[in-house]
Amino acid sequence: MTDIRTLGEFIVEKQSDFPHASGELSSLLGSIKLAAKIVNREINKAGLVDITGAVGENNIQGEEQQKLDVYANDKFKAALEARDQVCGIASEEEDEAVAFHKPLNLNAKYVVLMDPLDGSSNIDVNVSVGTIFSIYRRVSPVGSPPTKEDFLQTGNQQVAAGYVIYGSSTMLVYTTGNGVHGFTYDPSLGSFCLSHENMTIPQDGVIYSINEGNYIRFPTGVKQYIKYCQEAVPEEKRPYTSRYIGSLVADFHRNLLKGGIYLYPSTASYPNGKLRLLYECNPMAFIIEQAGGKATNGFQRILDIPPTELHQRVPFFVGSTNMVEKVEGFLREYPDE
Ligand code: P6P
User: Fold this and answer.
1) For residue 87, what are the CA distances in angstroms to 143, 162, 240, 307?
2) What ipTM goes with this model?
C-alpha cells in the first residue's frame, strides 16, 4: 500500500474540518485541480507550439495579453462553470465580473476570483508562472445572478485560497483556514500528491524580494529597509540576500519554504502599488497568515482592507512576520508627506 495521498483524497478527508461541509467546496476545489492540470500541460508545451505569443490585445491592466493568459482564463472559467458550485467569477483577464447563467449555477453558493496566469510575461523565457485563486461564499441570495457585493468582500471573508506554481515541478498549494497544504503534480499518475502538509513560514528570514529598479521612487521607509538589509553587520557576515524572480507566485513560494519577504511598494509607475488586492494580495495574505506569516500594505492588514473596485491595486508586503514588521517599523519611522 503506497502512502501517496492525492489532493482529491485529502480534500475529502479534510472536508469535516470545514463548517457546513456539504461537499460543494470539495467539488469546487476539484474543478480548480482539473483546470490546473490542463493549463500545466499547455505551459509545458509552450515552447513547442505557437501559443506563447501575444494575441495582440491588452487586458484592463493595459498589459499585452499572452495567448496562455487567455487560454488559462478560459480553462479555469469553463471548469468552474461546469461543476455548478460557482455562480460567477472575477479575473485579471476579465474587465467585469462574469456571471454564470445555467440554473444550477444561479443556485450555487460560491464565487471565485483569480489571476489565471500571473507572471505570464515570463512564459517566453521559461521562468515559473502561477495561477492564484480566492473563494468566497456569495452574499447575494441564491437563485439570482451574483452582484458586485459578492466580489467586493473583504479578504477576511475568504473560505479558501490557493495557488498553482508551474515551475521545475508543478505544485498546488491551498488553505481552507485549517493550515496550508502543498501537492506536487505527478504526470505519470495524473495526480497532485501531498508533498508538503501543514506548511509554515519561518518567523524570520534572510531573503528579500523587490524590484530595486524602482528604487528612486520607493517610500523612504522602504529605502531604509533595503539599506538595513544591505548594511554590513560587523559581527556577522552579510546576513541578507536579494532574490527577485519577477513572478509573485515563484517568489512567494520560495519565501514560504525558506523564510523571506516580498515587497511591492508604491512606485513611480504604480503609485498605489502594482499588485491587485482581490485576486493576488488577498489569497496570498490568507495563505501566509495560515502559515504563520504576515501580509500588510505597510500600515494595515491586507485581509482587513475593504475593497472598492474589482481591479484595485495596493502596496504589498508579505512573508516572515519579523521581516514584515521590520518594514512596517521603518515606514512609521520615516513617513513620506
Ligand atoms: P515588475 C507579474 O506581472 C507581477 O504581477 C508579479 O507576478 C511580479 O512579482 C510583479 O508583477 C513583477 O513586476 O514591475 O517588478 O516587473
Assistant:
1) 9, 19, 46, 20
2) 0.98
